[in-house]
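It is worth pausing here to work through a concrete case rather than discussing structure prediction in the abstract. The textbook approach is simple: state the sequence, then state the predicted structure, then interpret. We follow exactly that order.
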Amino acid sequence: MAAPVSGAQVFTGEESAAPEEAEPTPPSAPIALEREDDQDERIVTRLSDIFANVPSLADVTVSASEGVVTLGGLVPDTAASARAEAIATGVDGVVTVENLIERDVSIDVGAEAQGLQDRLTGLLRSLPLVGIAVLAGLAIGAFGYMLASFDSLWRRLTPNAFLAELIASALRFVFVLGGVVVALDMIGAGALMGAVLGGAGVIGVALGFAMRDTVENYVASLMLSLRQPFRPNDWVVIDDREGRVVRLTSRATILMTLDGNHLRIPNSTVFKAVILNYTTNPQRRFDFVLGVDADDDVEAARVLGRQVLAGLAFVIDKPAPEARLVDVGDSNVQVRFLGWVDQRESDWHRARSRAIVEVKSALEGAGFGLPEPIYRLRFDQRTEPLPLQSTRRAEPEGQAPAPSAPAPVPVPAASHAEDLGPQDEIARMVEEERATTPADNDLLDTSRPVE
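Step two, the predicted structure:
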């Protein structure tokens, strides 16, 4: 035994740390000093009888010496080994237990065959219930397909064929999934049903991320079919893409460009794009700028140009033509002339070109100068004027003079009877293509209002 510590205490200048408290140990049963002669035999007999009545512990062997019990043999799993040790520890007179039990990893062919036979027997007995569950699931799925087959009904209830097909597909999916759930519930496969639903959810999330662009385009197609942002053959500009609308499909908007080419724009892009529609309002304004000489009467030029625009047959009266001073250039004053045309009667590009020609001719005929930018050049010896010399070069004696440049040939003015009607080549091509395309492929509906 350790010697007791004396009453003297030694101080080192620092407060000594308090000793850590030891974790309390559970109290153990007192060990008797005297034992009966046959106590070990009685412990072995008692444990052997107990283990013989437990099927998982039937092969456990027991031996004891001076209260120390040794367990051996084979058990099917570690839980049975721990259970045997706990039982032995609880017997009166046992001092400790030495657990030498091993897990039985051998295969009992007879037992496995019996288990397989029992499973087959249970499966055969459950075949009628499985058949009824399958029939119930098929009946529910078939009812969903029957509802989805009423195309005429869904087309009457929905704005367009695309939405009708979407409702039919949703009905089929919901009823088939409901049939599977009911069938699994009837045969008592609740765990399998939860696994199926959980797996479907995980697969749906994964597909959603993997097909994000496709899903976005699909939703945009649905929204465009409901909103109807334009009509067939409308002249539109979608972001920086210009053309006439051919059709709206479930994936893309088809345009025919002004040079006759097909342009496919994904509906997800169209849904988020800025759309400029030239056809919605038939009245469209054109404008152009002419520079009048700064020494001329700019106000008179402005009034004259406005009167010329008002006198053109293709320029409508309301809104009236206008002329505005917009800027002072290096050698002129810039005047912006504006006029309106009806696109149903006049082509916008042709009308603008004719208006420029008419206003320019009228201003020049009235004596107004339309100068280009003029630049003054200065040379060295600024105090002395630059001598002017003849531009004609002296020819050597005996040599014929060089031929002068031919006089410019006057260009005849364009005929005022020029056809300014709308150009309908692209519109006609669009109509011909739409006439040969099945209506089911087009989500544009002329009977519904435009957004």
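Step three, interpretation. Residues 1-26, 388-395, 402-416 have pLDDT under 50 and may be disordered. Residues 259 and 392 are 51 Å apart (CA to CA).
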